[in-house]
Amino acid sequence: MNNSIQQESATTPLLTVSHLSKDYTDGNRVLNVLSDVNLHVNPGEIISIVGFSGSGKSTLLHQLGALDRPTSGVISLLGEDLTKLNDKSLAVFRSRHIGFIFQFHHLLSEFSAIENCIIPGLILNKYGLDALHERAAQLLESLGLSDRLSHRSSQLSGGEQQRVALARALMNDPDLILADEPTGNLDTQTADTVIDLLWKNCREKNKSLIIVTHEPTIAKRADRCLRLVKGALAESE
After folding, report:
1. pLDDT for 210-233, tens place per residue?
2. What is the mean pLDDT of residues 187-213?
3. Per CATH, the architecture of 4-235 is what?
4. Average pLDDT over the chain, rounded to whole?
5. Please, what is the Cα angle at 59 between 58 and 62, to 5 degrees?
């Protein structure tokens, strides 16, 4: 199996992952989830990751998104080694450059759709409140939620909540978007809308996307499809 997955290109990679591993300890038992993962992702590239349930796909996304620290290895995004940043610097960098779409959206139930959407912008503190509301409204409207802006997330359907989560991930115009089964709980029409918007965002703005999916049609639509097997990445057949 070839653990070094990269695309021949003169372009400087947006993301470089070198010899990444992640272990979890349970008493005296060490569970190795990721083992010597190597990956290059170019600007504007869309990569899908497939694999059996429990193979470590979500763990890998959490490492790439700087939501958890690896046991060993290097994760470099825009030339910055994320493994060397302290927690505060890592949080700021993540807010500026990474958008994460979770399978179960993780919205704040007592906040409205637009309030949930602007949270990343408030954390980054780069734009004024009016500008944030305008951008959030545009994103939500592009996802067919123009009449749901003021509804609390607890008043939205599962599909509507996932679309709010997508808008939230795009709020700060991140360089890298990480999507963990973003269509897993959506009907076909809504899933198509979400995927089309993700692809459009990447193609038009030269942004990169890594998407974990069990849907063959989505996986094949990516520029490259990789499979996670025994903790390592390989080109998917």
Report:
1. 999 989 999 999 999 999 988 888
2. 89
3. 3-Layer(aba) Sandwich (3.40)
4. 88
5. 85
Distance of alpha carbon 184 from alpha carbon 104, whole angstroms: 9
In whole angstroms, what is the distance from residue 12 CA to residue 45 CA? 12
User: In angstroms, rounded to a whole number, what is the distance separating the alpha carbons of residues 99 and 167?
Assistant: 10
Residue 147 pairs in a beta bridge with: none
Pairwise CA distance, residues 77 & 64, whole Å: 9
How far does Cα 127 stand from its chain's mean position?
Answer: 23
Neighbours of 61 (CB within 10 A): 22
Full-model pTM: 0.88
Query: Distance between CA atoms of 214 and 74, rounded to whole angstroms?
Result: 27
Domains in the chain: boundaries: 4-235
Average pLDDT of span 140-147: 88
Cα separation, 228 vs 236, whole angstroms: 9
Amino acid code (one letter) for 176: L
pLDDT for position 128: 87
